[in-house]
């Protein structure tokens, strides 16, 4: 691996995924390196949105049937499921990740109501921690927060009482990827029910949700899935649990016979019971269109290239004395963003932004750089590090 631009150009010209960059709307001269926060729009999105408005204006309420709006939460769910190793009929799309988390967590607790300890990842994204605390208060559970490194220890200490266990698959600060299959097995051995937050994994890491035995999972639609600001989130529930799932946020779309307008809730079969009220169709169709480039490129190929881009970045920053690589180097232990520790990360991110290099920072000293192989190239990485070098000088 070399640190010349010529090497990067050669590598980029032989890259079979290079064509997919054209499927994204990114301003000329801008390096979109924060797809871990908000992925850029796919070119298919404005087309899908204008199609949706046309359907709406031409078919009015018939769009629910004639244009497939009614089935969109399950249809888009199946497509997201394929990216995360979930067989069909186990994922629905809708609501925000926060709402889906509440629903997944309460449903998990209700699967094992006699188990009164809720274990939650102390390094998780704030929303997850707030919801774990709220669900514990609501249902009178004992909340035990633990670092992911000590999760096996926490499971052992509360053996016999462990119920729902909420974890993030990828640490949103450091980019560390946890051992989803191994930890899910450990949770099961302790008698618990796993709830994985895949917000930083979906579209980035081919999590094998079915093979890993994951019980419930949620994730947001606007990071690696590029569904747009406020894109609907998704909820995964393993088929073996469907008959027993009792969601706290129920709605008529999750009813066995929604148009009977009956007085009491009878859950639909399958994952449909995870639907709530009327889904956000415009956003759902935008998210659906955004999946096209990722599906065409293939999750495994995007993951492999993204890992290599990160390796390249590690090599390029190796001689920068003030920069420490926080993300694990082992490809099995990292997600798709790279975190660097350096002084004054906020000022550095601002200087980079003025140069068209869009990254994000976690104050005071962490800089997060997302190298999504779907639309980032070797020359982009080279140029970004060149800018970083100049900014640090
Ligand atoms: C991004 C993210 C969220 C965001 O939740 P919203 O309801 O979409 O705001 C939640 N959890 C994790 C782990 C995230 O990375």
Write a structural description.
It catalyses: 3-hydroxy-L-kynurenine + H2O = 3-hydroxyanthranilate + L-alanine + H(+); L-kynurenine + H2O = anthranilate + L-alanine + H(+). InterPro entries: Kynureninase (IPR010111), PyrdxlP-dep_Trfase (IPR015424), PyrdxlP-dep_Trfase_major (IPR015421), PyrdxlP-dep_Trfase_small (IPR015422). This protein has 393 residues and is an alpha/beta fold. The protein has two domains: 3-32 and 298-392, Aspartate Aminotransferase, domain 1 (Alpha-Beta Complex); 48-294, Type I PLP-dependent aspartate aminotransferase-like (Major domain) (Aspartate Aminotransferase, domain 2), CATH 3.40.640.10. It is built from 13 helices and 13 strands. Strands 2-8-7-6-5-3-4 form a seven-stranded mixed beta sheet, with helices on both faces. A four-stranded antiparallel beta sheet has the order 9-10-13-12, with helices on one face. The mean pLDDT is 97. It binds pyridoxal-5'-phosphate (PLP).
Summarize, please.
This protein is an alpha/beta fold. It has 13 helices and 13 strands. The radius of gyration is 22 Å and the shape is globular.
